[in-house]
Amino acid sequence: MASKYSSNNSLVAKCLVLLLILHVSSLAIGQSAVRESEFLNQSTAQSNSAALTEYALDFGYDLAGEQLSIDGVAQGLVRFETNLDIYHNQPIQAASVGTPTVPDVAISDQQEINSCWHNQEGTVEYYWSDLEQNTKQLQIDEVLGIADGVVDFDCAIAVKENGRASVLYTNGSDLKAGQIAFASSLYVNGDEWHTRTIFEGLEITNIELAITPNQLEWGVFRDNNGALHRVNYTGAFWQTGLIDAGPVGPDFELEITSDGQIHVMYTKNSQAILMTIIENQINHQIVAQGENLHHDIGLTLDGAELLQLFTSRIQDDQTLVRIERSLANQDNQLSLTPDYILSSDLTDTISSDMVFGDFNGDGFTDLVHAEADASTQTLISNGRVSIFFGSVDGLSLFQGHSWEGVSDAQMLGNSLAVGDFNGDGLDDIAIGSPGANSNDGMVQFAFGSVSGLAVSLSSVSGVSEIPTAGEKFGYCVEAVDDLNSDGNDELLVCSIDYEQGSDTGKVELFSGGDSSSIWSKMDSPNQMLQGSNFGQSVSADGDLNGDGLADLVIGNTGDMFDSSGFSSVEVRYGSPTGYATNPDRSYQSISAGTLFGYHVEIINDLNDDGFDELFISEPYNTSGPFNSGNVWVFYGNSAGIADQPSTRIVGDANN
């Protein structure tokens, strides 16, 4: 990329040399008998290559997972990390030759390093090196320099499959292209560069270059007005075109896949934009946005040619880097093959809920699994909740222990919630049993400790007492991040069969505490709109308006067995006292029987603007095929969420 000349730029200093980074892979041994300071002082030329002669290697990381005896270490495990790779600096141009700009580097398929740069005095230079440390340096061209009033210099390099390097570079207000010609009977004086001017009369600040699968050059450049242009070679001539009138940021990226997909990433108007060209079809996608977004970005392809994106932002004098990594590939990512399969030893039961937390403080995530309709101890649908502890070897396939309901139809585990309710730094779990005491319902707790969760469940004053008859207290439980700043998380509890007048369903908020204290009820919502079951679904998992407090979304609708009637969703913003009686935002369905709000979920910030988003499902919406369903997406903002959804996802098949 370009380096703009300035009298304050350190590149002007005549004492500087151009440093080319040569990468040498090294082994990261699982155990080491050598202190770090001693290791760093060793010459890499004295590394144990003799001990590795039995291995046919292309790269050092090919040894990952092997056990080696090396440097006095017996059967050391070669770890998969490559963070101990060694980098060497090698000067390749003396200061007396010229003042270099920022170089561009490309690695060939033969692992040969190719680099180009401007000397501000008026030359374009090329450097090459292979794995045997053979090197060569050539002058590509003589161009205008700082003495001619030039302030913008840039050179981009790419290498074809045959090892030939191509370059794009600036010459004052012109853009030039060059390709190396190897020494042959025609070029008896050795390798030389062929160059030509392909664009005139435009001050160019930055250039990127790549090679298409047809082995043709395809480049992107930015002018001093901030417009972004493309330039590509057809095999017969060069052609150019405008990508974006801008102004775009000075940093942009170009990647081309083996099947010819062209990806260009750049910033404009506080947005990071990804442009994709597939067979002359152009698509633009905003991948990040926000007023603090910085123009420094990154784009690369992994081993499966999936895009990996990097964006940056500057906020409160800190630079933050965000990585967007595709999970479509299995390599080092998500596998299609499960590592663990937990099978129930009971018949005619299904999983009702599953949550994760570190309940014993060992740093490993544990799994709690509920089967609310499980039948044990000669009881029917009493329910069972089991815990599986995590460890350095992964998740245990054996139950740490389990809790079982003590009466028919108790439905222990119909809902689970994980939070630090007593403020001791360990995760606790709340368990709902809506069928307990002939459908009165009950909520019980297992508090975390260094020895794990207690064998017996605890009742807590203020929240575990027998509620109003038949209201199914504990139908849902939801942990809420500490609202009142007392160090304890709060707990939401739904009573799905609560009835008062025309209202059905109730959601209550309780302030957390330890097992011996009396938990007090905080400000809690009332049902305000039409709907069959207030609390059919709840979510308090995020912050929609960015005030640092968890917000609450409640779905008020029927279920899959009875979808009749109109539905609604109510939104309340968090406060130190809880949630207001009346909603801050509400949505009423205008169609009966669609189950609008059957599932609601606050999702972590998707568009990188600092606000979480809200998803609302409507499984029986028929905008597409009959009962194909919709998911409505509302983006958060400083005022909360909008009256209308930002987008919707429409089902494509009958339900």
Task: Give the gist of this structure.
With 655 residues, the protein is mainly β.
Which range does the strand content fall in?
A: 35-45%
Q: Structural class of the secondary structure composition?
A: mainly beta
Q: What characteristic shape results from the CA principal axes?
A: elongated
Number of strands: 46
Low-confidence stretches: 1-58
- Give the N-terminus to C-terminus distance in angstroms: 52 Å
Keywords:
655 residues; mainly beta; four-stranded antiparallel beta sheet; 2 helices; 46 strands; elongated
Can you give a write-up of this model?
It is a single chain. The chain is an all-beta fold and 655 residues long. Among the domains are: 1-20 and 90-248; 26-77, no CATH class; 251-328. The chain is 2% helix and 43% strand. It contains two helices and 46 strands. The strands form 14 sheets. Strands 42, 43, 44, 45 and 46 form a five-stranded antiparallel beta sheet that branches. The protein has a four-stranded antiparallel beta sheet with strand order 6-7-8-9, with no helix packed on it. A four-stranded antiparallel beta sheet has the order 11-12-13-14, with no helix packed on it. The chain starts with a strand and ends in a 5-residue tail after the last strand. Mean pLDDT is 82; it is low at 1-58.
